[in-house]
Amino acid sequence: MAAAYSVHDYRRLAKRRLPKMVFDYLEGGAEDERGLTRNEQAFDDWRFRPRRLVDVSERNLKTTLWGRTHDLPVYVSPTGLNGLLRPDGDRILARAAAAANIPFALSTASNGSIEDVARACDGETWFQLYVMNRELADMLVKRALDADYDALILTVDVPVNGYRERDKRNGFQVPPRRDLRTLIDGALHPAWSLDFLRTGVPKLANFETMEVTSLEAQAALLSRKMDASFDWDALERLRDQWPRKLIVKGLSRVEDVRRCEALGVDAVILSNHGARQLDAIEAPIRGLEAAVADASVPVFVDSGVRRGADVIKGLCLGAQMVGLGRALLYPLAARGRPGVDDCIEILKAEMDGALALLGVPESSGLGRDLLTD
Q: What is the pTM (predicted TM-score) of this model?
């Protein structure tokens, strides 16, 4: 078995195991995909200026959010169709997050249902909401509340689907087309194919028992046919409807962060959806410092995180926590639960090493003075 020492190693292993159509879904971005490179490059553009002669013999990466202490300042970002990467992918990620004592966010487009994933782990769980129509959204919110999710994440950067050329060229859909190209691709990746011969094609489990037309809802979700009329008034209504922590994901402008605060939102996530919506969009890390400056609620950031040092840079710029998306999907695809556990440990070691080399024994001591651009 090939050794893996980084997220990049796990990416190579995932590419080897997955059919091209599935890997392209995982990896792909919008249009020319320059945004994918921009997200990672934006982290690289920040460089460290360490403190010296500091006792760093003991180091602490723990962070406290809403009165609950987590072992690492990261959370598992909501990602859809994880069951295509590995059977039972959502529950694998949820259980790995619970074992690492970090929050896990379940996507509306999950292959494990709201209820099943909640029962599968004992960690902190957040549910991410896509609003395709208001009636359906109300049902999903109620289910998440009944299943005792700790927080609700509203994603607001998908009024329409991004133009993802890889998916269009591949004819990507769920379930996959059974044409000659797909069959050959599956045959060339036997480990992946055998998994799904045993377990069957993953379904959008949250719509298997809905009171609305299931096929219609699934088709809308896969094509990102969202409620493009969802606005600030609708957010205010959702705030009244959801009694627990409410997080808004997909922001990039300071004035939007402030308006969310005014409506009583509990946290915001600066995100460009992993560069899967708009290609010519700024990397979220670039707007983090300005967003945090006047914010009175926690600000999180995601998109482009590949190293523990990226997490540390986000914390230096004021993020309360940093989201891990593809960084954990690669090991999920490559090796399942052992891969996810291992990759979390790799990222933890990278973060811990960065603290030591920066002269910062506590992650709470990270600050803007440690960075230059």
A: 0.95
